[in-house]
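Problem: given the chain below (260 residues), write out its structure.
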Amino acid sequence: MQPIIFQIGDFAVRGYGLMAALGFMAGIWIASREAQRLGENKERIMDMAFYMVLAAIIGSRVLHVMVEWKYFLQHPGEIVKIWEGGLVFYGGLVGAVMVGSYYIRKHSMAFWKTADIFAVGIPLGHAFGRFGCFMAGCCYGYATDLPWAVEFSDTNSLAPLHEHLHPTQLYSSLNNLTIFALIFLMRKSKKIDGQLALTYVFLYSVTRGIIELFRGDDRGTIYGGYISTAQGIGIVLAISAIVAMVYLGKKAAVKKSSSA
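Solution.
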């Protein structure tokens, strides 16, 4: 609703960039606290988070450019303007996982335990980021006459102006806050390492797919236009999370029985 918070000359503080930055800081802070609670190296987690954030920014932008390649082919100078919005979360997730996996192997860290640590912070940080989308007007919903519809009027907004739209950015922000609360409550009672990370992936993939039904912006489609790119990725991730959870559960049960 307020793409530019304030501007002095050519310098502008944009709502999207500010909220994204706050989200990264909040997510890293929560993850570092969780690492400290578990007796893990807090500094190493924060160091790892720094590289993962960079990878997430690059990955999320790359996927956005790939989805909107026709636009960026005509406006190549817009590719680097991430402060105006246009970061696809799944691209960032892939980038962060790739860099995080390399870091974990390099420092001989426990993969699933480390993944659980970050799973506590990611949805909180993402909630901030989605509110930034609301401020910028990106990721907007389609027209609706529901009483909670929102109307964008700032000419700097990326959403259609003076139309009543689904506040899909707020749906997503609230969704991420709910997932954060669930993961936060689960963290002390988890049965196996990886449970938090895989629960997060499953919940986000399913709920993101539902929210996609209310999106009005162009997000790319697959399978003849029946589902969006994000929904397709979400289906694969949700199934993968279930398979991985079953595998880890059976592996833990075998280990427990063999040691009994």
